[in-house]
Amino acid sequence: MKKYTLTIHQNLDKDLISQWKTLWNESDYSTFFNSYEWFATSSEVIVPSQIQIYTVQLNNKMCLVLPLVRMKVYGVNTL
């Protein structure tokens, strides 16, 4: 039976970064824009007020990562 687990991370740690890089290296759909390095660099430029990184694990192995940032755009909170 497949077991999916959704986790919402409020910050990055070494384990999350490692799993993200492993997923990216093993994926057939890897592009520069969905790499950890792209997210880290853009976060330094944009400086979000909060990050939320959604991950899904299938049988304890990461199969999806969705990094989002919370920031104000024209006075409106966006994610």
Please supply descriptive tags for the structure shown above.
4-stranded antiparallel beta sheet; 4 strands; 79 residues; alpha+beta; 2 helices; 30% helix
What does this entry look like structurally?
The chain is α+β, with helices and mostly antiparallel strands. It has helices at 14-26, 36-46, and strands at residues 4-9, 50-58, 61-73, 76-78. The chain has two helices and four strands. A four-stranded antiparallel β-sheet has the order 1-2-3-4.
Mean pLDDT: 92
Rg over C-alpha atoms, rounded to the nearest angstrom? 14 Å
Query: Assembly state here?
Result: single chain
Number of strands: 4
- Sketch the topology as an H/E string, one letter per element: EHHEEE
How is the biggest beta sheet arranged?
Answer: 4 strands, antiparallel
Helix % is: 25-40%
Which stretches of 5+ consecutive residues score pLDDT under 50?
none
Summed up, the helix count is: 2
Q: State the secondary-structure class.
A: alpha+beta
Anisotropy-based shape? globular
CA-CA gap between termini: 33 Å
What is the topological layout?
Blueprint: E1 4-9, H1 14-26, H2 36-46, E2 50-58, E3 61-73, E4 76-78
Antiparallel strand pairs: 1-2, 2-3, 3-4
Concise overview:
Helices cover 30% and strands 39% of the residues. The chain is α+β, with helices and mostly antiparallel strands and 79 residues long. It is globular.
